[in-house]
């Protein structure tokens, strides 16, 4: 029996300066309870608090899950409330595993 995704929510919690403190995703498979946007946001704040974040200063932003691309660093423009991404520092594989690429 195949299980299909029927809902996928992503909530970003960010600080007043736009720095992202926590990203929370909720995926519902067929037969599961589809959480409301408010329930997903509440869960995001609860998880962030358990991870030691000072949640009173955090703001929430709901984004499409596909908006977060791999190998990118994100922050939120606090004025426009838009996600701003830039390529993550490159990594390289060397004899001891994965490490940051050497700078110029």
Please sum up the structure shown.
The chain is built from 1 helix and 7 strands. It has 104 residues and is mainly beta.
N-to-C SSE string, H for helix and E for strand? EEHEEEEE
The averaged pLDDT comes out at: 86
> Based on helices, strands and strand pairing, what is the structural class?
mainly beta
Helical element count?
1
Helix content: 10-25%
Describe the SSE topology.
Blueprint: E1 5-14, E2 20-29, H1 37-50, E3 59-63, E4 72-77, E5 82-87, E6 91-94, E7 97-100
Antiparallel strand pairs: 1-2, 1-3, 4-5, 6-7
List the main descriptive attributes of the protein structure presented here.
three-stranded antiparallel β-sheet; 1 helix; 13% helix; single chain; mainly beta; 104 residues; two-stranded antiparallel ribbon; 43% strand; disordered C terminus
Tell me what the structure shows.
The chain has 104 residues and is mainly β. The protein has one domain (5-100). Helices cover 13% and strands 43% of the residues. The protein has one helix spanning 37-50, and strands at residues 5-14, 20-29, 59-63, 72-77, 82-87, 91-94, 97-100. A three-stranded antiparallel β-sheet has the order 2-1-3, with helices on one face. β4 and β5 (82-87) form a beta hairpin. Mean pLDDT is 86; it is low at 96-104.
């Amino acid at each position: 029996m195949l299980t299909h995704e029927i809902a996928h929510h992503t909530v970003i919690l960010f600080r007043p300066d736009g720095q992202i403190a926590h990203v929370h995703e909720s995926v519902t498979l067929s037969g599961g309870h589809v959480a409301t946007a408010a329930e997903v946001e509440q869960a995001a704040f609860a998880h962030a608090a358990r991870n030691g974040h000072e949640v009173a200063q955090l703001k929430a932003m709901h984004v499409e899950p596909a908006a977060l691309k791999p190998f990118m660093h994100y922050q939120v423009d606090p004025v426009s409330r838009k996600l701003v991404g830039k390529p993550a520092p490159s990594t390289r594989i060397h004899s001891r595993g994965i490490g940051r690429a050497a700078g110029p």
